[in-house]
Amino acid sequence: MKILPGVLGRAYGEFLKPKTIVLGGDVRLTSETLKLALAKGLQDAGVDVLDIGMSGTEEIYFATFHLGVDGGIEVTASHNPMDYNGMKLVREGARPISGDTGLRDVQRLAEANDFPPVDEPNAVAISKSICVTLTLITCSVISTSKTSRRSSW
């Protein structure tokens, strides 16, 4: 059974009840479209979505933990061919969600697709900004290095 990304976002939100999650996606052509649908489903579940843009799975893990949010979703098919796509789900503390730790529950909710009506559509934030990435950088620990410039001509 195929599950639409918006329904999966709603199921994730209804199951985990997160306040805020991070959302990212890889370079696949379908990633941005899937992220938008996921964000809408999450939003319908009352979740604030912090879209960190194009990212790898490791950046979702890092941002989830470092920002102290309640979870994260990376749109990716990992090492699979470019015409595939999927999602990796994590909960607070950047802990992966597997079949034994909630993935099957999210799947059941998504397959049932029986959610309460949305009280206030678009009532939560979807933030998309490079400022999110900049908060992950500790500038004081970056040192300048002296480099010599040599002309090779």
Automatic annotation (TrEMBL):
Residues 8-113 form the Alpha-D-phosphohexomutase alpha/beta/alpha domain. GO terms for biological process: carbohydrate metabolic process. Gene3D superfamilies: Alpha-D-Glucose-1,6-Bisphosphate, subunit A, domain 3 (3.40.120.10). It catalyses: alpha-D-mannose 1-phosphate = D-mannose 6-phosphate. Belongs to the phosphohexose mutase family. The keyword rRNA processing does not apply. PANTHER family: PHOSPHOMANNOMUTASE. Pathway: Nucleotide-sugar biosynthesis; GDP-alpha-D-mannose biosynthesis; alpha-D-mannose 1-phosphate from D-fructose 6-phosphate: step 2/2. It comes from Escherichia coli. This is Phosphomannomutase. Keywords: Isomerase, Magnesium, Metal-binding, Phosphoprotein. InterPro entries: A-D-PHexomutase_a/b/a-I, A-D-PHexomutase_a/b/a-I/II/III, A-D-PHexomutase_CS. PROSITE patterns: PGM_PMM. Its EC number is 5.4.2.8. Its cofactor is Mg(2+). GO terms for molecular function: magnesium ion binding; phosphomannomutase activity. Signal peptide: none annotated. It comes from the Bacteria. It holds the Pfam family PGM_PMM_I. The keyword Ubl conjugation does not apply.
